[in-house]
Design brief:
This protein has 179 residues and is an alpha+beta fold. The protein is built from six helices and seven strands. Residues 1-177 form the N-acetyltransferase domain.
Length: 179
């Protein structure tokens, strides 16, 4: 498994992933070329503090991983804190998707998150914790996080990505291992 920065040439593939029903249900993203450029172009151009990374398995793109320090997105961090979530200084958050539905349900999501957390400790020395809110109704993503070793630390009402969802989110966390 490897990760590389999202590139402009990846945007059509990302649009196809975002349009796939199993992704669209939870990401609720516009998928026109203009919308994907609007939402992911700043990352491609290095204008975003967070990272959009293409997940590769045996050299084949299979998904997307977003990783960012919560301090770089203060409105989101403040929403978590206002909902009662403990967000330590140096907290990083993740979001992820597997684009091909045939690759879901076989442990790949767990491998992606496990590797993302491992790399967070190795690549981001200032990272103190990984904090991941997930809609309470997204049982598959909750299982991925649990199998990857994150623990459920809170339930919080947060603005859902998809307006059909209630605001309830389960919040998962992993703390940097002691040296």
């Amino acid at each position: 498994m490897a990760f590389r920065r999202l590139a402009r040439d990846d945007l059509p593939l990302l649009a196809a992933w975002l349009a796939a029903p199993h992704v669209a249900r939870w990401w609720h993203h516009e998928t026109t070329p203009e919308a994907v450029e609007r939402d992911f172009g700043p990352s491609v151009r290095g204008e975003e503090p967070g990272e959009d990374l293409v997940v590769l398995v045996d050299g084949t793109p299979v998904g997307l991983l977003q990783r960012s320090f919560l301090r770089d997105y203060p409105q989101y961090r403040d929403e978590l804190v206002a909902a009662g979530v403990d967000v330590p200084d140096g907290a990083v958050t993740l979001d992820y998707l597997l684009g091909d539905p045939a690759r879901t349900g076989h442990g790949l999501g767990t491998r992606v998150v496990t590797e993302a957390v491992r790399r967070t400790w190795a690549e981001l020395p200032g990272a103190t914790a990984v904090v991941v809110p997930v809609p309470a109704g997204n049982a598959g993503s909750r299982r991925v996080l649990e199998k990857a070793g994150l623990r459920r630390v809170a339930d919080a009402d947060l603005e859902p990505d998809n307006p059909v969802d209630p605001p309830r989110h389960a919040v998962y966390r992993a703390d940097r291992p002691a040296p």
